[in-house]
Amino acid sequence: MTNLMIWPILIPLLTGVVLLLAPKRVLFQRALSLIAGVALIVLNIFILLSIHQDGILTLELGGWNPPFGIVLVGDMLAALLITTTSIVSLPILLFSIYTIGKEREQFYFYAFYQFLITGVIGAFLTGDLFNLFVFFEVMLISSYILIVHGGTKIQLRESFKYVLVNVISSAFFVVGVAYLYAVTGTLNIAHLSERINSLDSPAPILTVIAVLFLIVFGLKGALFPLYFWLPASYTAPPFAIAAIFGALLTKVGIYSIFRTYSMIFTHDIGFTHQLLSILAALTMVIGIIGAIAHQDVKKILVYNVIVAVGFVLFGVSTMTEAGFIGAIYYVLHDMVIKGALFLLIGAMVIVAGTSHLKEMGGLIKHHPRLGWMFFTATMALVGVPPLSGFVGKLMLIQGGIEAGQYGIIAVMMVTSLLILYSMIRIFLKGFYGQIKLLKADQYGSSKGLLLPCAFLITVSALMGLGAEALYPFAESAAKTLLNPEIYIDAVLKE
Amino acid sequence: MKTNDVILQTMTNVVLFIVLIFSIFIFFNGHHEPGGGFIGGLMTSSALVLLLLSYDLETVKKVLPIDFKIVTAIGLLVAVGTGMGSFLFDAPFLSQTYDYFTFPVLGELELATALLFDIGVYLVVIGITLTIIQTIGEDK
Fold first, then answer.
1. Do B69 and A20 touch (CB under 8 A)?
2. What is the helix (H) or strand (E) element at residue B109, kind and residue range?
């Protein structure tokens, strides 16, 4: 029991290492990855429930007391995020088994998939800023390999940009950590929070560092004006990889803003959180412009990822309980539904043989289930009441009203409407309309591809229907974020 | 005309062992003085790179029929395994301990479990370096 908190990191790590030993045995690779995926879900749900019962769980690595050693902190937010991560990564793994191809499978695909999940889960669980950096790098280096894996021309070109942007932002991260260490003399998040919040008159340098961290995490999480690398990089790799990127990678950047802007940098809310809310609104606007402008289904979806970043960060910037609950709901919903939509669009492109909206049409004739699943996922994304997107948006609006940000709420509402337009256009043109391809011409079938999509849509529907059951979890996560003392007491044990 | 590398190869045969022994010395020294798994591993791989420079890839593969990707994986397993060793004693992950032991020739020595973790690092560094160099070196 002492070591419960390390297991969510150890399971994917050990699986990845064992998969390195026998790269050519594809069946073994698939089976072990699936078993590890299921085990991770079971374990994470168990952790979620025990945190719900006993409060924050910590693990002091090596037995060193914080702030001297590294500590893993499982608070409610981290537990919700690792549970969703494991639930989303399993169907995407299943989808990649169907679609990724023997060539890729034999060259360590599953091992790097596991290392990516190790990095993401580690970043969610760690309670130390430099350790967060290390887990960011674990995640990013695996994502560099996955984005270029297969070595097609477009992947080589886009991975080059992706690596360049991320190397620069990682360098900024190190500089930010160095500044923060020079000012406060500690890197433990709880200790940092305690030290900064106990200052009578915080130095302006802390605000500078806060903005520096916003640049770093904004680059990772695709915040306006730092989103420019995302559309091209996320359309380059195969759909299974794009799905795991779209569902998880930007969320780690968002989570880091969540953590730092609620626990560490709360000394000058007037400036930092105002900046955050303006950037969030601009992110929504720029994302939705991209989503409407494009005729390529992949691009439309990728720009919708950017819009969601804006929604969540707007919730963080309000610094109200409703805003935080809304942001937490929305980020969980978005992980699930973006995974589902990437897989559905992937299946759609496989069936239609093209990703251009003008060249497809009438798919619903031969693929009714795919079509209606896509419709349901679109409705969930927009936030139609019984599905998962609704509660998050409702709470975000409530939080916005409490903070008096009416302008941004208006932007949010219009953006939501335009999301509906951008996605329903895919449904109307791609699934309805004139049939462009005869059944005989269609590439492959969508047979195995629908199962993972159906799984994710079911999860999304359950999240919407069971919003009442999920509420205490989100509420307790928001409470911890708004009252850092709970977190500090749990970690430093004072 | 084929160049004659007799001086280079003879010197390599002598120097190789000096570098290898020095790398192992550095590796074991890490607990109390500068050194450790990373630098030790780099130095061992530099000895193997010297071998690659003076002979060719095929010869080195014949002398050392090792798949360095497997070495990396084993190194990772060792490193994670030493962390998990603490599970047996109900201590937190990555806990370490040390004790003094008396050996027949060497006398009393301090042995720490951190050394086991360092072996993992050492193997990973060797595995990664040589995988990179062999992959770039191969014409294909």
1. yes
2. strand B107-112
